[in-house]
Write a structure and sequence with these properties.
Largest sheet: 11 strands, antiparallel
Number of strands: 11
Mean pLDDT: 87
Low-confidence stretches: 2-17
Strand content: over 45%
Shape: globular
Oligomer: single chain
Strand order of the largest sheet: 6-5-4-3-2-1-11-10-9-8-7
Number of helices: 3
Helix content: 10-25%
Structural class: alpha+beta
Order of helices and strands: HEEEEEEHHEEEEE
Distance between the termini: 49 Å
């Protein structure tokens, strides 16, 4: 009976481990504090995203987005704090997660569906964004804040 109980505990706890479906991408990520252009792996869970960035085959940075945004070696911070430090305070909290998942940003503002995805052009006093999601590529450029993110399938 004792062994059956141990087996059941181990069996059900293994099911609770966070499993992320990872895919390899070519990632360009340029902000005022991060400059990266090389291979990356993007893992997607139900409510989380992990971005593993590599330079010449060696691990460079890992960014985890869940309730907070965590960067290897730098710790975790609120999404709004991350936006202020690395992106722009004019961005909504889930902008980075939505970009890496290829989902609409700014509550689908100015969303134009295309045959192969969608485009959003958002201009205000704080941003000048062109955001395109296509079959094998995600393109995000904010000219006002000098931020560029491009994610392309390598398969």
């Amino acid at each position: 009976m004792k062994y059956l109980l141990i087996f059941l505990v181990l069996f059900f706890s293994a099911c609770s481990v966070k499993q992320l479906e990872k895919s390899s991408k070519m990632v360009v990520f340029k902000t005022k504090n991060i400059r990266f252009s090389d291979l990356g792996y993007i893992g997607q869970g139900k409510e989380s995203v992990e971005i593993d960035l590599y330079v010449v085959g060696k691990a460079f940075k890992k960014i985890s987005i869940d309730g907070m945004i965590c960067i290897d070696g730098e710790g975790c911070m609120r999404k709004s704090s991350f936006n202020e430090e690395y992106l722009s305070s004019a961005y909504p909290d889930d902008l980075l997660k939505n970009v890496f998942l290829g989902e609409p940003i700014f509550d689908k503002k100015n969303l134009i569906k295309t045959d192969i995805g969608f485009v959003q052009i958002i201009q205000s006093s704080g941003v000048d964004i062109v955001y395109k999601v296509e079959l094998d590529e995600i393109y995000f450029k904010d000219r006002k804040n000098k931020i560029f993110i491009k994610i392309k399938d390598v398969n």
